[in-house]
Design goal:
Layout (H helix, E strand, L loop, with lengths): L22 E2 L5 H5 L27 E15 L4 E19 L4 E24 L4 E23 L5 E22 L7 E20 L2 H4 L6 E8 L2 E12 L9 E3 L3 E7 L2 E10 L3 E10 L5 E2 L2 E2 L6 E10 L14 E10 L9 E15 L2 E14 L6 E15 L9
Antiparallel strand pairs: 1-4, 2-3, 2-20, 3-4, 4-5, 5-6, 6-7, 7-8, 7-9, 8-12, 9-10, 9-11, 12-13, 13-16, 14-15, 16-17, 17-18, 18-19, 19-20
Length: 410
């Protein structure tokens, strides 16, 4: 629908979000985003790593992390171009250590799973036996799916940790199709479709930092893995038709609510972390999700394919000396990634690559303000397909406090 006839697209989001359940969000805060969306193999006591449930077992303080995402798309079809942007709440997670000795930590919060936000035009022409009607169609989509997370961890040893989370998916997607005849002698129409969905998936992760016990040269290496189960989204579709806005007659109709289902396929990932010296951290991740076998509203998802993401990142850690200068207490980050998205309209795959940079600024104690900047390109090879230049800024605040600590009595 959006291929050669597309004139312009974007409303702070990608026109490709018309497919599937929209643009899938990487489950990460500003720290991971600054390191090329890596972190599955990292064990850190200072951050709630949404990519790796098992890493939560190392948290020794109650922590709250919330983030904001600014996203701008410069989209072009080779003839027209447009830049639009928006800022959104990008999730919040709360971690509460229950037993540090056993690595039992509870984490709860919400993060975005997908975002639908497109505003595109196509042209068409109806040829009848007596007349020809040229028209344009305005496609508008908003909404998305949110993921509610409730998780728990357990560490049977100092080098091995497991994490489990229940992921409750919920949200609504509105898609509006507005037909505008290019001849004022004809009346247009509007079809508005709302899908409200909910479902659940489950994630299981593991993190191992004891490779040095087997091979001493690997003492600085950690490895993590996570797998997320297949889920079913139970959806309710309601369609509203407005056939004309004439002053003489207004023909409108609303369909009965229709129950349908969509599937969220299995996803898995593996990551490595390497501590190079006292203040340098390296990371590499591979993530994959099997969308080619998914269904959307009870129909096979012909426009989707299996997706994967490869990322690498590095971080210069802050100086542990509390008396060091402000610059020495900054965290500095760099990263890059390649993302084979799950979009495949008309058989043409859509790929994305990006470079990232970030910083962590100390606030008070162990609380930090984190920033991540990103530049990415997204395109397909089909004729007339949209090419996106993407700018993202993620800002997150990470605050901590000591809870459930028993101090010795005098």
């Amino acid at each position: 629908m959006l291929l050669p006839a597309t004139l312009l697209a974007g409303s702070g989001g990608s026109s490709y979000s018309i497919y599937g359940v929209g643009d899938l969000r990487a489950a990460s805060g500003a720290r991971s985003a600054g390191m090329g969306y890596t972190g599955i193999g990292l064990a850190d006591i200072g951050y709630i790593n949404a990519l790796a449930p098992a890493s939560w077992a190392r948290l020794n303080r109650a922590r709250l992390e919330a983030s904001l995402l600014y996203e701008g798309f410069n989209s072009t079809d080779g003839v027209h171009d447009r830049y639009l942007s928006r800022a959104d709440f990008n999730g919040a997670l709360l971690a509460i250590p229950i037993s540090q000795a056993n690595g039992i930590v509870m984490v709860a919060g919400i993060v975005p799973f997908s975002t639908v936000n497109y505003d595109a035009y196509t042209l068409g022409e109806y040829v009848g036996t007596q007349d020809t009607m040229a028209y344009s169609i305005h496609h508008v989509g908003t909404g998305g799916i949110t993921r509610g997370v409730v998780g728990l961890t357990y560490a049977p040893s100092q080098t091995l940790a497991f994490g489990f989370s229940t992921n409750v998916l919920f949200g609504s997607i509105d898609r509006e199709t507005i037909q505008n005849p290019r001849n004022s002698s004809y009346a247009g129409g509007v079809v508005t479709d709302r899908v409200t969905a909910n479902g659940a998936t489950f994630s299981l992760g593991a993190l191992y930092t004891g490779l040095g016990d087997l091979i001493p040269s690997l003492r600085a290496l950690s490895i993590g893995a996570v797998v997320t189960s297949r889920g079913v989204l139970s959806a309710r579709n309601l369609t509203h038709y407005a056939f004309t806005t004439s002053e003489v007659t207004t023909e409108r109709d609303t369909s009965e609510e229709v129950a349908r289902q969509s599937t969220v396929p299995v996803a898995f990932g593996i990551g490595l972390g390497y501590r190079l010296g006292d203040r340098t951290l390296l990371a590499a991740d591979y993530q994959r999700q099997l969308w080619s076998g998914a269904t959307i509203n009870d129909a096979p998802a012909a426009t989707l394919r299996d997706s994967y993401r490869i990322g690498i990142g590095a971080e210069r850690l802050p100086n542990n000396d509390i008396h060091s200068g402000f610059r020495e207490q900054l965290s500095l980050r760099l990263g890059a990634y390649y993302h084979a998205t799950y979009y495949q309209p008309e058989g043409y795959p859509i790929d994305e690559w990006g470079v990232t940079a970030g910083a962590g600024v100390p606030l008070s104690g162990e609380s930090r303000l984190n920033f991540a900047l990103e530049y990415a390109r997204r395109k397909g090879d089909g004729p007339g397909m949209i090419k996106d230049s993407i700018f993202r800024l993620t800002v997150s605040v990470n605050i901590s406090a000591l809870w459930f600590i028993q101090y010795p009595e005098d």
